[in-house]
Design goal:
The complex is a heterodimer of chains A (163) and B (131). Chain A is of the alpha/beta class. Chain A has seven helices and nine strands. Chain A is globular, with a radius of gyration of 15 Å. In chain B, strand 1, helix 1 and strand 2 form a beta-alpha-beta unit. Classes of the chains: A alpha/beta (163), B alpha/beta (131).
Chain lengths: 163, 131
């Protein structure tokens, strides 16, 4: 099997991922692609122990993820890919990774970001990255948990329509 | 012996609701902080928790709702380097009440181990034998 969810979520592994998506998709593996987390043995251990039994967690740098991405597509069982932000998604795409569809599950408020819904906030740089991904053929859907309806980012953020 | 301090960290309004329920059973409560993860990124929630536990001179307990959630993960990250700060997950009302009754009698580690057992023991099944 292959990727069943590619998600941008600044909480990385947390309840919505392991409980809601985990029960819905039954992943065998979760990849966390994050240079900062991958560079810390303590952080790798923390994220690995957070997942339920039966789900293997890999915490990878961008370079490691780009190199191994294709092999994961032929591995047995479904897998989830987690990224902290759109900057990481862009970097993966620039490294040759085909993302196809991105689930936007959590980009929380920081100064300069405006609210799109309760869990997605963006500033101009975020929107520019989103436009670049869409232009590259990536579908961006906003959805926190499987029980809610996925919505195209462009449909709920009027600012995305402005160039 | 001073009370072991606690920070209740949960999804949505669960922590506040549990504290309201605890007050009904136990009576007025002071010295317990409550934090919801609502609206926070991981870094932000970690900082909110860190701001509280940094005030604890002799350790304390972070009472989080479930293992694997952001409250648990951020609790562990924030507790790092603050001495005997212990994260207890699976928070329920019996566990919270037991904390309130024993926070002045035990050290953080003994109290955390007691609460782990209390939380487990509180989940019981009853079958109607006449059915």
């Amino acid at each position: 099997m292959t990727w069943v969810l590619r998600r941008v979520d600044d909480r990385l592994i947390h309840g919505q991922v392991v409980v809601a998506w985990g029960n819905h998709l039954r992943p065998r593996r979760i990849w966390v692609v994050d240079d900062a987390a991958a560079s810390s043995a303590w952080e790798r251990e923390l994220l690995s122990t957070a997942a339920p039994p039966g789900i293997a967690v890999r915490v990878l740098s961008l370079a490691e993820a780009a190199a191994d991405y294709a092999t994961e597509e032929t591995a047995e069982g479904p897998a989830i890919l987690l990224m902290r932000d759109l900057k990481t998604a862009i970097a993966l795409a620039d490294a040759g990774v085909t993302l196809q569809m991105l689930n936007l599950g959590g980009i929380h408020y920081t100064p300069g970001r405006t609210k799109i819904n309760e869990y997605i906030y963006m500033d101009d740089a975020d929107r520019e990255r989103a436009r670049r991904l869409i232009a590259a053929g990536v579908i961006l859907e906003v959805q926190d948990v499987p029980a809610t309806r996925p919505l195209p980012l462009a449909a709920i953020d009027p600012a995305m329509a402005q160039s | 012996m001073a009370n072991v301090p606690a920070l209740v960290v949960t999804h949505a309004d669960l922590g506040a609701a549990l504290m309201r329920a605890a007050v009904r059973v136990y009576g007025p409560v002071d010295g317990v902080q409550v934090l919801s993860n609502e609206g926070y990124s991981r870094d932000q929630l970690e900082k909110e928790i860190d701001d509280q536990v940094a005030l604890w001179e002799h350790g304390g307990l972070i009472l989080a709702d479930f293992w694997g959630g952001s409250c648990h993960i951020c609790g562990i990250a924030a507790a790092r380097g603050h001495g005997e700060v212990i994260v207890v997950t699976g928070l329920n009302l019996p566990l919270l009440l037991d904390y309130l009754h024993n926070r002045g009698a035990l050290a953080p580690r003994e109290l955390a181990e007691r609460l782990q057992q209390k939380g487990r023991d509180s989940i019981r099944l009853h079958y109607d034998q006449t059915a």
